[in-house]
Design a protein that fits this description.
With 286 residues, this protein is of the alpha/beta class. It folds into two domains: 6-131, 3-Layer(aba) Sandwich (Udp-n-acetylmuramoylalanyl-d-glutamate--2,6- Diaminopimelate Ligase, Chain: A, domain 1), CATH 3.40.1390; 135-285, Rossmann fold (3-Layer(aba) Sandwich). It is built from eleven helices and 19 strands. It has helices spanning 8-14, 16-19, 58-64, 67-70, 73-80, 97-105, 117-131, 160-169, 211-215, 236-245, 270-285; strands at 6-7, 22-24, 31-32, 42-44, 53-56, 85-88, 110-112, 135-137, 141-145, 148-153, 173-176, 181-185, 188-192, 200-203, 207-210, 223-225, 228-233, 250-254, 257-265. Helix 8 (160-169) crosses helix 11. The longest helix has 16 residues, at 270-285. The model is unreliable at 33-40 (pLDDT under 50). GO terms for molecular function: ATP binding; phosphorelay sensor kinase activity. InterPro entries: Hpr_kin/Pase_C (IPR011104), P-loop_NTPase (IPR027417). One of its GO terms (biological process) is regulation of carbohydrate metabolic process.
């Protein structure tokens, strides 16, 4: 088990298109030293806490423009000790040039956007709690098929990556090959791809495939909830039982959450069987 770090670059890149914000940072990837169990990772500037993302909205702007705060050395000393970064919402940075100049002087990074704080704060809170949840690496290949997260497991060389390639040819998405990381958030398990394996799929006798280059940008997803585990077998025992597996799926316990699990024997039509397993899962959930 390991804990992820969060940097301002992570936040910037994750929501760059959605929030259309601008980044100022002298170091670009300053780590936010938060603990995963922290209650308030994203906060407004009513109380200064270390290791948090501090949001500056219109209300905070009025506060920062008051005569008492503008010349309050103790307040700025507290700002200087914050091991986090700031987000200026509602285009407030243009009104707070004095405050911004202090952040730059102290090498404290910040983001600027015209989006409202009411929109950004809940989205960021959810993202950060997911990002910083404790993680474990699971050997296998993680896919998104019909909007469901599917983890392919099995012995090395059984055909997990080749099965993923067949699924990609049928316009499904790869999340991570070989070593996806999983985390529990509430009552759900989420999986994502380690940065060093992004968009990579390794096929025996061929080598590493760049998924986006070969299948387009929509063939890759950054993360997804885990909905189904499919164990791929090479032996004939799975062939004998796969006729009845869909009627009586197993479950596997992952961090106290029961995830449906089935077994399939590898064959050239395994992508079709994976799709059918997802259809069966969707039928049971309706």
């Amino acid at each position: 088990m390991f804990y992820a770090h969060l940097t301002i670059s992570d936040v910037y890149l994750r929501f760059k298109e959605e929030f259309k914000w601008h980044l100022w940072s002298p170091i670009g990837s300053k780590k936010l030293g938060v603990k995963p169990e922290s209650l308030a990772l994203v906060q407004y500037l009513n109380v200064l806490r270390p290791a948090c993302i501090n949001i500056i909205s219109n209300e905070e702007t009025l506060f920062l423009l008051t005569e008492q705060i503008t010349h309050h050395n103790d307040f700025f000393s507290a700002i200087k000790s914050v091991n986090g970064f700031f987000i200026f919402c509602d285009d407030t940075a243009t009104k707070l040039k004095h405050f911004v100049s202090h952040l730059q002087a102290w090498s404290i990074p910040y983001l600027m956007t015209e989006e409202s704080s009411a929109q950004i704060q809940p989205i960021l809170t959810t993202f950060i709690h997911i990002h910083l949840a404790p993680q474990v690496i699971q050997h296998g290949t993680f896919l998104e098929v019909f909007g469901k997260g599917v983890l392919l497991t099995g012995e090395s060389g059984v055909g997990k990556s080749l099965a993923a390639l067949y699924c990609l040819e049928r316009q499904h998405c790869l999340i991570a090959d070989d070593a996806p990381s999983f985390k529990r958030v509430g009552t759900q398990i989420f999986g994502e791809c380690p940065k060093e394996l992004l968009q990579r799929l390794e096929i025996r006798q061929i080598g590493i495939i760049d998924v986006s280059h070969s299948f387009g940008s929509l063939a890759f997803a950054r993360e997804h909830r885990l909905d189904l585990v499919i164990q791929i077998n090479a032996d004939t025992a799975a062939q004998a039982t796969e006729r009845v597996i869909a009627l009586n799926p197993e479950t596997v316990n992952i961090w106290g959450i029961q995830i449906p699990k089935i077994q399939l024997a590898f064959n050239p039509n395994i992508a079709i069987l994976i799709e059918q397993a997802i259809r069966f899962l969707l039928t049971k959930q309706t």
